[in-house]
């Protein structure tokens, strides 16, 4: 019997393998604006959809990142990837670290794009409840998206991303992943990990800041560096896609 796999988008045919994991409000389609700028002769990219999201919307599950890590490794096996690099946006930063813990010898490098650290967002119950309320409230989703990009972009765009998130992610999956990135701390398991890590933050992101990165990712991964992207908030793949693609590949090609 053929093993069921998560949905994904594959771009490129190069020998270097890279898998990207999106954020809470996103899907594999988040990365499409980068595609015209990607070196598809050097790299093969896979843009992954979690269970309950996008092309995996009909896949049931526990909606945890441990489960997602198992799904990523099953997909990598299916594709014949022995080793590969990871990119994670926002909650995807937590997800890629779970993949690293599950198969440390298979991960070449990790890039975090406005990435939540292994300690999670350290939300208390009040804030967690406020985020939980967005499951059934698209206007609250749009407000969070607007805030995370510095309240500097058109409200129509924030509402568009909010509606897309509601369309592409099942409510039970959207709710299920929340505590995994908002209130779960596994930093003790990754502290001192030698995997090369590059962190990208947006200059207008009010939450994923250089100070936070210094206290978390940069403190825990000895081979990590940080780059700030100009004219971007929490969604640089939409705000500055060519600049992000260039910065990512410049770093990936250093290996």
From TrEMBL:
Gene3D superfamilies referenced in this protein's UniProt entry, alphabetically: alpha/beta hydrolase
Occurrences of domain AB hydrolase-1 (ranges): 21-239
One Pfam entry name: Abhydrolase_1
InterPro entries, sorted: AB_hydrolase_1, AB_hydrolase_fold, AB_hydrolase_sf
Superkingdom to which the source organism belongs: Bacteria
Protein name: Pimeloyl-ACP methyl ester carboxylesterase
